[in-house]
From TrEMBL:
<protein>
    <recommendedName>
        <fullName>G-protein coupled receptors family 2 profile 2 domain-containing protein</fullName>
    </recommendedName>
</protein>
<feature type="compositionally biased region" description="Low complexity">
    <location>
        <begin position="482"/>
        <end position="494"/>
    </location>
</feature>
<feature type="transmembrane region" description="Helical">
    <location>
        <begin position="296"/>
        <end position="319"/>
    </location>
</feature>
<feature type="compositionally biased region" description="Pro residues">
    <location>
        <begin position="13"/>
        <end position="22"/>
    </location>
</feature>
<feature type="region of interest" description="Disordered">
    <location>
        <begin position="1"/>
        <end position="22"/>
    </location>
</feature>
<keyword id="KW-0472">Membrane</keyword>
<feature type="transmembrane region" description="Helical">
    <location>
        <begin position="178"/>
        <end position="196"/>
    </location>
</feature>
<feature type="transmembrane region" description="Helical">
    <location>
        <begin position="208"/>
        <end position="233"/>
    </location>
</feature>
<feature type="transmembrane region" description="Helical">
    <location>
        <begin position="133"/>
        <end position="158"/>
    </location>
</feature>
<feature type="region of interest" description="Disordered">
    <location>
        <begin position="333"/>
        <end position="354"/>
    </location>
</feature>
<feature type="compositionally biased region" description="Polar residues">
    <location>
        <begin position="1"/>
        <end position="10"/>
    </location>
</feature>
<feature type="compositionally biased region" description="Basic and acidic residues">
    <location>
        <begin position="509"/>
        <end position="518"/>
    </location>
</feature>
<feature type="compositionally biased region" description="Basic residues">
    <location>
        <begin position="339"/>
        <end position="351"/>
    </location>
</feature>
<feature type="region of interest" description="Disordered">
    <location>
        <begin position="477"/>
        <end position="518"/>
    </location>
</feature>
<feature type="transmembrane region" description="Helical">
    <location>
        <begin position="245"/>
        <end position="264"/>
    </location>
</feature>
<keyword id="KW-0812">Transmembrane</keyword>
<dbReference type="GO" id="GO:0007189">
    <property type="term" value="P:adenylate cyclase-activating G protein-coupled receptor signaling pathway"/>
</dbReference>
Length: 518
């Protein structure tokens, strides 16, 4: 069924061998094989071809197909001259071409209407040189090492500060522990990223696995911080009870995404990017692995983090606006009731005042906003660049620059998260308390977080009664003598006040309890 023609020699035009050629009745339109000597290699794949090219060094097998490729008509087994870096096939209009394997030293260009022109060669002849690979590796190291050092120093600073029992109380928070886990895996990510080989080697698959595995942990732990903030602040869940689920979920998901990938030998040397990454020679299969085990999940984590942070910020804004409205209504109602005289400053809720003026409140908002911003910049950018490189390839100088930008962003993520961790409010507050203790000053407890009655305890409720009376709960500070106790009063439109005494010790205890959940 098959006729095979074998030739030898290094002449650029390989003539046909009539004795081995197939019958004229089964031949496709006239075709010739042109091997230009000493030419730079050209594009690796062109869609819609009737040829299947299967390089088997030192030969190249070209199979001519009938129709859509369901039947082999004949094949040519040609030696590739040592001086040639490319080959082009000139033949009939193209219908189908299977992708060439990526782990080859020589490549083919299939041209439908003749050999490549000077214009096509100038646009498609780019390839990554060893010098460019070295430059990309140096830039990636230069961006990764500083971030890894910063994350490591922040962790050391956390540990030294936690030696103080007073400062340790500021660290007793769920989100802070999640931040520490994320920093640990950012350090491991930086080490793995810097230690991964920059050339095909035995440890290439292990390095790619370590990079992706630690990246998943670092990303998912950061996302859990935003999820925890929304669940505790907006929905009233206990963050301490949820902490174990964050740990279990992140661990199981990271293992599920990376263990099968390395077990099925999907990690290795990637010819397109000249890096240790996903190495499946089939373009479509490799793209499915990239999306299914990395790109989709990293993008989803960044999206969830952005949504949760936006919900928390919106909740804080509405909380502050509602409590100000309540204060104005409560002040007007109490004055009309003929009860104890209060000035505007005394009838305003202490919680609203602290929310509005405490600088730590603004710091919390800033921290919540910065994490999704960094995630959007780092995660979405790297995902887009990864997919662009996998789909388009590295065929021009612009593609090479995008590849370098991708490697740099992977390295900078450790620096970005390290700087955010260094400015964490819990860490800053712990340092302040340690400094105050050393200076011999008295620590005055701030009750910032207590100032917020989170979802389970609304700051203000308005309830319509059957008789038309509107009942409002407001926090009033009664200035009677030297008493500094806070009184929570239920004020009705009929002028009746029901007071419940709340001591500063109670508020301090509540503040500590809520802080541990955040």
């Amino acid at each position: 069924m098959y006729s095979t023609r074998r030739t030898s020699g290094s002449h650029p035009l390989i003539p046909p061998d009539p004795a081995l050629s197939p019958p004229a009745s089964v031949l496709p339109p006239p075709a010739s094989v042109l091997v230009p000597p000493d030419s730079p290699f050209l594009h690796r794949r062109i869609p819609d071809s009737r040829f299947i090219v299967a390089p088997r060094a030192p030969h190249i097998t070209i199979q001519f197909l009938q129709g859509k490729g369901s039947l082999d008509l004949f094949s040519l087994d040609l030696p590739l001259p040592a001086s040639c870096e490319s080959a082009s096939v000139q033949g009939s209009p193209l219908q189908k071409l299977n992708d060439l394997p990526r782990n080859l030293t020589s490549y083919l260009r299939l041209a439908p209407f003749g050999p490549p022109t000077a214009q096509s060669m100038s646009s498609d002849s780019y390839t990554i040189t060893d010098a460019e690979i070295a430059v990309a590796g140096v830039l990636a190291y230069a961006c990764t090492i500083p971030g890894t050092i910063v994350c490591g120093l922040v962790l050391i600073a956390y540990g030294l500060t936690a030696l103080s029992p007073i400062a340790r109380k500021s660290f007793d928070r769920v989100s802070f522990r999640l931040l520490v886990y994320s920093l640990v895996f950012n350090v491991l990510f930086g080490i793995a990223y810097a230690a991964t080989p920059t050339s095909p080697s035995k440890g290439c698959d292990v390095g790619a696995f370590a990079v992706n595995f630690t990246l998943c942990f670092a990303t998912f732990f950061t996302t859990c911080i935003a999820i925890n903030l929304q669940l505790v602040l907006v929905h009233g869940y206990n963050g301490q009870n949820l902490e174990k689920y964050y740990l279990i979920g992140t661990t199981l998901l990271s293992l599920a995404l990376n263990i099968p990938t390395v077990a099925l030998h999907q990690f290795g040397w990637n010819e397109l990017s000249a890096t240790c990454w996903y190495s499946n020679p089939d373009d479509k299969a490799r793209l499915r692995w990239i999306i299914g085990t990395q790109s989709f999940w990293i993008s989803l984590a960044a999206t969830i983090e952005t949504i949760c942070s936006s919900v928390v910020l919106a909740w804080m804004y509405h909380f502050q606006r509602d409590i100000k409205t309540l204060n104005r209504s409560a002040e007007s109602t109490v004055e009309k009731s003929g009860g104890t005289k209060h000035t505007k400053s005394t009838t305003k809720s202490r919680r609203s005042s602290l929310l509005s003026h405490d600088p730590r409140y603004k710091t919390i908002i800033l921290r919540i906003a910065l994490y999704p911003i960094v995630s959007l910049m780092m995660n979405f950018s790297t995902v887009i660049l990864d997919l662009n490189m996998s789909i388009v390839g590295v065929n021009t100088q612009a593609d090479y620059r995008l590849l370098v930008a991708d490697l740099i962003l992977y390295g900078l993520r450790t620096l970005a998260y390290g700087l955010l961790a260094a400015s964490d409010p819990s860490f800053v507050n712990a340092l302040r308390e340690v400094h105050v203790i050393k200076a011999g000053k008295t620590i005055v407890s701030d009750r910032t977080i207590t100032a917020m009655e989170f979802a389970s305890k609304k700051p203000a409720t308005v309830q319509s009664q059957a008789g038309g009376a509107t009942v409002m709960e407001a926090d009033l500070e009664l200035q009677q003598g030297s008493s500094s106790d806070a009184t929570t009063s239920e004020v009705s439109s009929e002028g009746q006040i029901d007071s419940r005494l709340s001591t500063p010790e109670d508020e301090e205890k509540e503040m500590r309890n809520i802080a541990r959940q955040l």
